[in-house]
Amino acid sequence: MKVSSADRPQGFLLKAIALFFLAFLFFSWDTGNTSLWDIDEPIYAQSLKQQIATHNLVVPIYNERLLPDKPALNYWLMWSGVRLLGMNAWGLRIGSALVGALLVFYLIIALRRLYGAPVALLSGILTATALHSTVIFRSATPDPLLILLVTVALLSYLRAYIDPAIRTREFHLSYAAMALATLDKGPIGFLLPGLIIVVFLLLRQQLSFLWKAGRLTTGIPLFLMLALPWYLAVGIETHWLWDRLFIFQQNIGRFDDSMQGHRGPWFYYLISTFLGMLPWSIFLPQVLHDIGQRRQKLLRDDGKTLFLLIWALLWIAFFTLSATKLPNYVWEAYPPLFILLAVWLNKIHLHQITPRQWSMGISLGTLFVVGLALSVFAAWILPLREPHLPSMIAIGFPYMLAALIAGALMLRRYWSAAWVALGTGSVILSGLLVFSVLPAINPLKPSQAMGRAIAAVQGSSPYQLASWDWFQPSFLFYAGRGDMPIHHLTALAQLSTLLGPEPLYLVCPAKDIPAVRAGTPPGYQTTRLMTTYEIYSHQKISLLDIRKRTYSAIIDHKPRVPDAVPGNKE
Question: What's the superkingdom here (predicted)?
């Protein structure tokens, strides 16, 4: 029997490595072309900057307070990127791009033994080209690491369950991945994967497998050896305050009540999952229908599909019950769905199933409508809310064209060419997002420009930062140095308590400048450095320089730092 090049170990490995480098290039290309996005990215970035300034990479702090949001692993990943590329968007985000490429590579390598080379390669390609991948693997947040580690933990467990020849290695890899996931984002890193494994074994009536063959006697010590030291170290150093805040505020609190306004209806994740997995999610109804036709044999004969379904459904169901909702929370459910999609697409390629034309027409019509909606929203609806943004009508064109081309190819049964058309459309849309849409939004985030304005005026001299009635974490990151704090005024009467020999840079809404000037003591001079529109609050924000009134300090700074958005001068 002739063996294809994809099935040969050497040829398969070369393809896997090539896709790894292509994915890394795709996720990292021009990833520093926009400033950090509020609020998460600059919070973690500023915390890292303060940790570096205080020579303490154990205790997360932010603005002179403990930051119990996330454990240490992602900070260490960002620190590695900063060491290579500097304390900027490039250095902070490059680790996430690498993690995304590693996820693609791991899926390809791990799935070959379970499903064969074609499904393994296709799963990696679907994962890399999904819409949400462009977003998540270009952001300096803990989510990319959790996605990779949860995927490794669960797929390694499945591989160990199915193949006794690699059981010991894969179980230990699974326990190690859960430990690192716990070090990245907390108890969710082992509790939810553990629940998925237990439910799977219960449905298969094999719960005893957990302690008879699950390598618990070596796996649990390995888990504790990797995860426990940092939690003990941060607990000892903060007298266990960080650990208590993290467990009760950031974990139990987030599940019990929405935080930072992140709430949504019960069907929130059904919509976000569909949108995040585009363009491939348009075929999920057919995939689930195909599995449903085999449901009688699912428990007994198809452990792999059952495991993947439990993985996806339990993860989504868990966060549906949570009060705090964000699209990133269910990204860990994407990999099993991508695998099931790849299996279904490969069946079509091998002529094992023939999808009905009307169902494929509905799927492609849905993608066309989504693309049309994107263009309508970007061209007519968004400008009503944000008139400062340029026209982005082209944003939906890639999906519309891909749907039309794929439909024409499917009519001729050119299935592989149709998948290529959809993937190409997705890559083009990602390119539009990265090179056109996001750079257009970037000037409407004034924090980076304000930081440059302060640096141009202040040089290396000391100064202070304060905010009144407006603040974004990115302002502290770009305007501050090292572990410099910012003072948040709750009343303008507090302004006099901050003023001293050092200049004070105050950020506030432009409409409040007269009130700030009125509240400034007679011995001080207030100079407006810049005023620019800010997209988050939909108003003009001003940066003021307040310093002692001396002859040398009476300088008009405006010629040095022009307004960031044309036409917004007072």
Answer: Bacteria
